[in-house]
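Hi U.,

Before I forget, here's the chain from the pilot set. I'm dumping it here mostly so it's searchable later in email.
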Amino acid sequence: MKKLFLLLFFIASCYQISDAQNTATLDNEKVLEYYQSQRYAEAAQYLQSIYKDGVDDPKALTQLAYANLMGGKYADAEKYYLKLYTQNPTSLPVLFSLADINTRRGNESKAKSYYQEVIKIDSANFSAYKKLAYLTKEDINNKKISYLLTANRLNPIDADIVFDLCEIYFKTGAFHKLKQTLEPALKADSTNLRLLKIKIPLHVAEKNYPEAIKTGEQILGYGDSSTFVLNNLGKSHFLSLDYQNALKYFLLISDKSADNETLLYNIGMSYRGIKDYKNAIPYLQNAIKEGVSPKIATYYGLLGDSFEMTNKNDDANNAYKKGLQFENNGSLLYNIALVYETKLNDKKNALTYYEQYLKTIDEKQQPKLIIFIKRKIEELKK
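Structure:
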C-alpha cells in the first residue's frame, strides 16, 4: 500500500499543481524530503498550506490523503479519500485506504463494507478476503470460514490464512481437511513455526505419536521451547507410555510457568508411570486442590442455609458436612452444631461439632465467643 502511494506521489510530482485561488507553488523536492525522513505529519501540514480546502484535483487529493494517513491523522486522511471515492468509487487503492482507516479508528463494520465493495469489483482480490476474514472475529463463523476458504483458494500458501483455517479444522475435528490445507503451505515454507506447531496436535489427535515427537523436537531445534511445544511433547511421550521423557517435558513447563490442574495431574501420572508413587502424591494432591474452586465451601454453606430455610434440616447438615471436606470452615461447624441442637434435638452430635468449632476460634480476637461456646458445651453435657 505504501509503495503504491509513493508511486502515485512520484507521478504527481512530475506536474506543477497549483490552485487558481492560491499563487503558492508546490515544492516537490521538499515534500519528497519529508517522505524520505518519514516526517509525514509535517508533509501533510505543508501540503495543506499549499492546497485550499476546496481542492478537487485528484493528484493533490492523493498527496493530501497519503500524507495525513502516514502521519496518523486519520480523520483528515478519510476526508480526502472520501473526495477521491466520490470522484472514482471503483478505485481499489482508495477503497483499501478507507477500509484501513476505519479499521484503525475502530469502525470495523464500515471497514468491512469497503472490503466488500472491493470484492464486488474484483472477485479474485486475495487481500480483501484476507482482511474480511480477520475482521470477522468469531472462530466458528460461516462468513469467516467462507472468506478464509476463498482466500486459501486464491493463495494456498499464505501462512496466516492457512493457520486460521487449520485452527478451525482442528476445533471441528476435520483432520483430513486440515492436512490437505497445511501440506502445500509447509511445502512452500518448511520452517514456518506457526505452521509446524499445528502438526503436533494433529499427529496427537491421529495417535501418530512418533511424528508428533519428531515435529516437536524439530521446533525445539529452531529455538522455540514454548509451553505449547513442551506440553505436546510431554503428552506425546506419555501417550507412548514413555513416562520418563514425558516427565522431563512436563517438569520443564512447571519450571517456567504457574502450576495448573492439568499440568499437575500429568506430572503426577508420569511419576506413577515410573512407579515413583512418593513423588506422585503431592502433585496429585495439588491437582485436586487446583481443580476445586476455593469458594466451594462457601457454596455448600449457602446450599445448607437454603435447605434450612425450607426446613430440610438433614439435607442442610449434609450440605454443611460436604463443605467441610473442602475446607475446615468454622462457620460450617457452627451451623451443623446449631442444626443438631435447635432443629434435630440431637445433643450428642451438637456437642461434638461445638467442640470442633471451639478449636477454630482465635482466643485473642474472639474471647467473648469462646466463653459463649464453652457455656453451650457445658449446658449440653448436663
